[in-house]
Amino acid sequence: MTEQDKKRIGKFLSLVLRHDPEKIGIELDENGWANVKELIEKCKKHRYHFLMEDLIEIVETNDKQRYSFNEKRNKIRANQGHSIDIDLALSPVEPPEFLYHGTATRFLSSIMKQGIVKGNRQHVHLSNDKETATKVGSRHGKPAILIIMAGKMHKDGILFYQSDNGVWLTDYVDVKYISE
What we know:
Elements: H1 3-18, E1 34-35, H2 36-44, H3 52-61, E2 67-69, E3 75-78, E4 99-104, H4 108-114, E5 116-117, E6 124-126, H5 130-138, E7 143-148, H6 150-155, E8 161-162, E9 168-170, E10 172-173, E11 178-179
Antiparallel strand pairs: 1-3, 2-3, 4-7, 5-10, 6-9, 7-11, 8-9
Helix pairs in contact: 1-3
């Protein structure tokens, strides 16, 4: 499988597992898991042909570590970023003192007025380091990195979760916890 094929299939999996499982007629369980056999078969009907070995390679080599298998590798799910209602069954975790949010400079004035909102996703996504936040912000234009006072938020009773691939999740970041 070529890198181009892996990228193309990975983007399609992201669409199906995070936003639109109905596109290929699969159902995700309440925790976002899809049956691997069914996923492979139904992707084929939509011109996305891959084998189990290919799917394993996509999961293991995805630069954003977007997907996880269960222990038996008979189920797969996206680690975060869903716009559909699922419960990732994550437990609250104490975050580090500071986390980072990458965005585009054109969104700064809005963020500094209303905070960081989750939009159509289930959570706001935060990064452990500036490098990752820069990559995220670069996807949307000229990047801006915001420093999030996660430790203070946590002390103030705001819950944080960490997905299987290390992304920090919370419901909302108020302006008072943000610095540029």
